[in-house]
Amino acid sequence: MIYLNVLPEVIIVFFGILILVLDLLFKKEQNEVLSYVSVIGCTLAFFACIFIFSNKAPLFSGMLLIDSFGTFLKCLILFATILTILLTKGYEPLSSTANSKLPEYYSLLLFSTLGMMLMVSANDFLTLYLGIELTALSLYVLVAFLRSDVKSSESAIKYFLLGAFSSAIMLYGITLVYGLAGTTNFNILFSYFSNSSGEVPLLLIVSLLFILVGIGFKIAMVPFHMWAPDIYEGAPTPITSFLAVASKSAGIAVLIRVFLNVFPSVTAELNTIIAVLAAITMTVGNIIAIPQNNIKRLLAYSGIAHIGYILIGFVVADSLGVQAILIYLLAYLFMNVGAFAIVVIVSNVLKSDDIEDFAGLGQRSSFLSALMLIFLLSLAGMPPLAGFIGKFYIFAAAIKGGFVWLAIIAVLNSVIALYYYLRIVKAMYFTDTKEFGAIPVPTALKVALLIITIFIFLIGIFPQPFINLVNNSVSLHSFMY
Amino acid sequence: MGILSAITFIPLIGAIIILFFPKGKDNWVRISSAVFSGISFILSIWLYFNFNKATTDLQFVEKFSWIPSFGVTYFLGVDGLSIPLIVLTGLLSFISIIYSFNIKERVKEYFFFFLLLEVGMMGVFVALDFFLFYVFWEIMLVPMYFLIGIWGGPRKEYAAIKFFLYTLFGSVFMLLAILALYFTSQPHTFNMIELAVNQPFSRIFQQIVFIAFFVGFAIKVPVFPFHTWLPDAHVEAPTAVSVILAGVLLKMGIYGIMRVNFQILPEAAVWFALPLAILAAINIVYGAFVAMAQQDLKKMIAYSSVNHMGYCLLGLASLTAIGFNGAVLQMFNHGIITGALFLLIGVIYERAHTRDLNAFGGLGVKLPIYTGLITVATMASLGLPGLAGFISEFLCFLGAFSVFKVITIISIIGILVTAGYLLLMIQKVFLGPLNEKWKGLSDMNPRELVSVVPLIVIMIILGVLPHLILNLSDTKLLQMANLFSK
């Protein structure tokens, strides 16, 4: 049964619709059940992914390509979705049972997950564009979900306008490619442009630049990053973490597939530009993060910087580079969602997201502050935590690929990054507080934090199984290497 | 589990155990930290007596595959270079923990971080795989940051973050250098011993990698232009942490230079010997003069560390066995002597709440035991024959004089100035008429005596029997010097 390969997608579609149906059957007070339903859906899809992990199959006349590279990213995205649901359950502004829109929230979350799953296994510009739009449209609504909050609505409008604009630019790039080659299928495009010997047509370079702009927007690459801080700040925190982790991972996957697999010759031409953009991305992200006082904005800028590191793996453009990206994304998933989980818990009690609110957290709850410390140190790349393995891989790829200058900029950036992560640590541990009230941790978040912490230490101390996983998904099935 | 793993990770077990003690049981925390650190110390003594001094081979080796796809191994071992430092770390950690029994604020966190710090320090000296080495090197930064930042003096936050950023700045370059070595070596390896044997490193490659490593290590030592974190960190840190900073952390830099720069990149080491000697002379003379200008006792001793580490560097730069011997012995002696001095300054600060050199006077009458001990430590520090410091300084100069005559002669000024400011300090604080303000000061209590007296005894013993340490490393250092005598 070749169509078994889309089982994960089918499961997500089924559960997305199921939630809408159940909404009609349940009373408003029982909405809680739907979060379990969506977790079950994602978990089933996750296991389906593991089941088909080593399969490789083009489907629907080459519209989709199921391979282990895509499946690995699907696992990652589904994990992010599960953690996002857990965060949502603990997030007071959304989790109150009175919120009658909650079923739509979960349903939209699943559909945006579906969009990302399509993005990472798209084998045709049409499916790719559909995936991107499905993701984006669901996310526009999710960002605006705190309807009584002006900031949430404002950020949704910004996100929508800029997102639509960037999609249009990307679509224009796609049409130019279609005009050159007469097809949108990746396999045919690859053979078409690798057979036509000699110079790469200028128009192709231009059209790929357009596509780069579109994806650059999705992953918040400088200079297309301006939206990220505002939207991260305004969106409900679980959605912020979802945007920061899942959406970026999917975008990076598309970048790898389109640029490294389909148009390697053009990417070679653009490599210097992308290398410079990577350097600028991490530097801008880190430097602007320093003066931020809102922790969600700070994490937004730090996320931009992390994209800069990840782009190094992309610039190196060999299998070690792609492995480094996948390891980094894996580590980034856990440490970033972990940090956002702590933000959720603290803002439940204090009703704001400023760094000053973390003052004295070390004394109020040594458990939470210790976890936050672990997440921040991991983000800063300190061993023996997950983030270090990611950084190590990225730097190794850069040195091996001969991009020493990029590696030097990256390590200097990791020193800058430590400074602003330490600002939060300083607030937690060195500043006294007058408040000593306990900070309650919702059960769902306890579960999420437990999973995250275990993985951060596992990846940091025993990375070999994860490295094997990544190696398998890169080497076995991608068609370029 | 091998002996080296035990020495390294027993403090970690202790750190985890004390986390589970109920609130308010501060004495349990104190005693169990001392016990766990003590076990580690006793094991390092056992190591000292069972170490085979006749061979340059690695001993007590533990090697397991860790991350096979990168060839990373869990590789521990000791040779003559690391064994004195392991004993020193065990001793100073244990003594500092005893001295820290007077910490009253956030006790559990303090001892947790202290034990974690010990894990990192021990790990650096026993790790022989670069990946593992780097992990331990970085692990140590976090507890140190907290120890300075929470329990430190008035400018603690500034000092803590400066220490952290400075050291990280150095170590990230080290990481790149490690990766460069990995990808250039044949076959690719992180093994620090294999990297030292027959590797196809071109001279220019060696020089670049040498600089990258040197920046990382020089910040720790600290070598002249990179030393500015040191006075801040030493002055703001609580007493026991200053002891560890001066006693162990600075040695990591010298150890790194000897282990990595000299053994893996010998060709570059020859090329950089002269600049190294010049930096050493600057460290010695500049450190001494700046120390002389200080009014704050702790700051004075902090700068004297810059000066004393200069001796080590000078010994290293000579690339001779005598110089190496001097450097290794000087590392050990400086750890003991400066450790004792910091403890003693902590003692007076806790009573008088000032460290101003001019605020005291005539304390010798009031505090005879204290004055006696600090005089011995000071004399050892300025290199009085018969005490530990003299022999190592002498060996460093002896080694260097055969190679860099002018630089060595210039460096001698540092010894004179050091003697000058230390004697001046004794005179201002302990001699002359008693300042009436300090009538009520009490002499040292048992806890303080227990932590200081062993160090003083070691100073005297090593002054007479330096071979107790020199014998350990002699064979290894001779082999190292042979790298350069071709």
Task: Explain this structure.
Chain A is mostly helical. Chain A contains 20 helices and two strands. Chain A is globular and about 70 Å long. The model of chain A has no long low-confidence stretch (mean pLDDT 89). Chain B is mostly helical and 486 residues long. Chain B is built from 19 helices and two strands. In chain B, strands 1-2 form a two-stranded antiparallel ribbon. In chain B, strand 1 (59-67) and strand 2 (72-78) form a beta hairpin. In chain B, helix 10 (239-264) packs antiparallel against helix 11 (266-292) and helix 15 (368-382) packs parallel to helix 18 (446-464). Chain B is globular and about 70 Å long. The mean pLDDT of chain B is 90.
Short description:
The complex is a heterodimer of chains A (481) and B (486). With 481 residues, chain A is mostly helical.
Q: How does the SSE layout of this entry go?
A:
The complex is a heterodimer of chains A (481) and B (486).
Chain A: H1 7-25, H2 32-51, E1 57-59, E2 64-66, H3 68-90, H4 92-95, H5 102-121, H6 125-143, H7 150-181, H8 186-195, H9 202-218, H10 227-234, H11 237-262, H12 264-289, H13 295-316, H14 319-350, H15 361-364, H16 366-380, H17 386-400, H18 404-430, H19 443-461, H20 464-475
Antiparallel strand pairs in A: 1-2
Helix pairs in contact in A: 1-2, 1-5, 2-3, 2-5, 3-5, 3-11, 3-14, 3-19, 3-20, 5-6, 5-11, 6-7, 6-11, 7-9, 7-10, 9-11, 10-11, 10-13, 11-13, 11-14, 12-13, 12-18, 13-14, 13-17, 13-18, 14-16, 14-17, 14-19, 14-20, 16-18, 17-18, 17-19
Chain B: H1 3-19, H2 26-50, E1 59-67, E2 72-78, H3 83-99, H4 107-126, H5 130-139, H6 141-151, H7 156-184, H8 203-220, H9 229-236, H10 239-264, H11 266-292, H12 297-317, H13 321-352, H14 363-366, H15 368-382, H16 388-401, H17 405-430, H18 446-464, H19 467-484
Helix pairs in contact in B: 1-2, 1-4, 2-3, 2-4, 3-4, 3-10, 3-13, 3-18, 4-5, 4-6, 4-10, 5-7, 6-7, 7-8, 7-9, 8-10, 8-11, 9-10, 9-12, 10-11, 10-12, 10-13, 11-12, 11-17, 12-13, 12-16, 12-17, 13-15, 13-16, 13-18, 13-19, 15-17, 15-18, 16-18
